[in-house]
Design a protein that fits this description.
Blueprint (H helix, E strand, L loop, with lengths): L2 E4 L2 E4 L10 H15 L5 E8 L13 E5 L5 H16 L16 E2 L3 H4 L4 E9 L3 H8 L1 H22 L1
Helix pairs in contact: 2-5, 4-5
């Protein structure tokens, strides 16, 4: 396991391997940390880029999104913190929101957030099949913004819990 400390917080990669690890195995790793440290002391952010097409042409869909599991969970608070950080670090980029349940995150049955007891969220960081989003993601500015919004969102989530 690859672990490190950043800004005074312990962090670890769920999948430090350079090959695909099953969702079940990733979930069990997180759940092991939850059992060892207490679910309140663990949070998970699964970081992705989005796509709208079939990979054969550039698409028009754009924006940043955060998903949680269904219902009110600790993941909703984590998503709120991530949305606030995204608003700061991604000015001019669309933040895709769904307020149908009173908060901005989209709810879904994605495997890992659904099957972990800690605060868990899945972010879709712009669209890799939109040429403008892709150029930003590949730029130094874009990489810094994506990293910074996740660090800031997670730190704010942890600090607001204690």
């Amino acid at each position: 396991m690859t672990s490190f400390q950043y800004r005074g917080f312990d962090a670890a990669l769920v999948t430090p391997e350079e090959y695909d690890v099953s969702l079940r195995a990733r979930t069990e790793r997180v759940n092991t940390w939850c059992r060892q440290l207490g679910k309140r002391n663990v949070c998970l952010v699964s970081i992705h880029t989005n796509a709208a097409g079939n990979g054969k042409q550039w698409m028009n869909a754009r924006g940043w999104t955060c998903y949680t599991s269904r219902g009110q969970t600790a993941g909703d608070h984590l998503a709120d913190c991530l949305y606030k950080a995204a608003a700061l670090w991604l000015p001019g980029h669309k933040l895709r929101k769904d307020y149908s349940d009173g908060d901005p995150d989209w709810e879904n049955d994605f495997y890992i957030p659904k099957n972990t007891p800690c605060g868990a969220a899945l972010t879709e960081n712009l669209f890799h099949d939109n040429s403008d989003d892709c150029l930003f993601l590949e730029s130094d500015e874009g990489r810094r913004a994506i990293v910074a919004l996740h660090v800031e969102g997670i730190v704010n989530y942890v600090l607001k819990r204690y």
